[in-house]
Structures are given as C-alpha cells and as structure tokens.
C-alpha cells in the first residue's frame, strides 16, 4: 500500500473515530464507514491490519490522555522511560481486552522466548496458528522464515497427538539418563 493511500485511510479513520460513540463503535464499523467515505475496499488483510493499527493507536492516545489527567499531581517512583514502556504494554492489553497484538495485527497467544512466539493470524480468509522466530529491525519485531503455520485442522490434529509426543519425549529422556 502506498504512503498516499495510507495517509488518506488514516485521516478518514481518525475523522470517523473522533465523531463516534466509542462505547458502541467497533473496528468493523469504522472500517466499513471509512471504506464508504473513501470509495476503497478496506477488507483486504493488509488494509484491515492498517485500519486496526490506526484504531489501536487512537484508543491508546485517548487512554493515555485519560490516564494522564487521572495521574496529574502524583509522583512516580519509576523513570519516565520505564513508565512509558510499562504503560504502553498495559494500554495495548487493556484496549484489546487483555490481548496483545503484534505490528501486523496478529494476536500473540504466547511468547516462547524473546525471539519465538505463537500467534493467531488471518491469512487469505483462513485462521492460522503460527509458531515462528522473530528478529528486530528499526524497532519492529519481524517474522523470519523459521517457523510453521498450521490451519485449524492441522492444529487440531497436532493438539490431539500431544500426549503421544509427551510420552515419546519421556521415553527418550529416560534412555539418555
């Protein structure tokens, strides 16, 4: 998506958000209204993720303003840098009902290590469970080709066989002792 299109979409989404009742507005409603306003199809995965990022940034900004007004006059023991990192992570989770999303808008299920994680993503209309390694570039965590993405059916098969995998691991470990 080119920067000009991104800017038009962002401006339309922000305009809609500013005039919306945030208790009743959903991301889907915002995307649909922006789509109609711009005459663009915003239902493609790339554009959905972009709209989600704009919406989340707007919510984070609003939440930050509300928290700032609440916290005025109180002193914090943490450095402002630590506070910003903590509050950004907490805000992200609060906005999404305790859920954490990556830069591409994929739901992070868990972090296996600092470089590996399990995410849930929508790819060409299919839900995928992705277990992947990530690297950092320009402050963003980006996926590598090292990993696997499983369809819901493949995940169900894998999950069903976890007891057999655990049994085989125990057997193998007992041989090594």
Topology of this protein?
Blueprint: H1 3-18, H2 27-38, H3 45-71, H4 80-95, E1 100-101, E2 107-111, E3 116-123, E4 126-137, E5 140-151, H5 152-160, H6 162-176
Antiparallel strand pairs: 1-2, 2-3, 3-4, 4-5
Helix pairs in contact: 1-2, 1-3, 3-4
Task: Tell me what you see in this structure.
There is one protein chain. The protein has 177 residues and is an alpha+beta fold. It folds into two domains: 1-99, no CATH class; 102-177, Transcriptional Coactivator Pc4, Chain A (Transcriptional Co-activator pc4, Chain A), CATH 2.30.31. It is 54% helix and 22% strand. The protein has six helices and five strands. The chain has a five-stranded antiparallel β-sheet. A hairpin with a 4-residue loop joins strand 2 (107-111) and strand 3. Helix 1 packs across helix 2 (27-38) and helix 1 (3-18) packs across helix 3 (45-71). The longest helix is centred in the first third of the chain and has 27 residues, at 45-71. It is elongated. Residues 73-79 have low confidence and may be disordered.
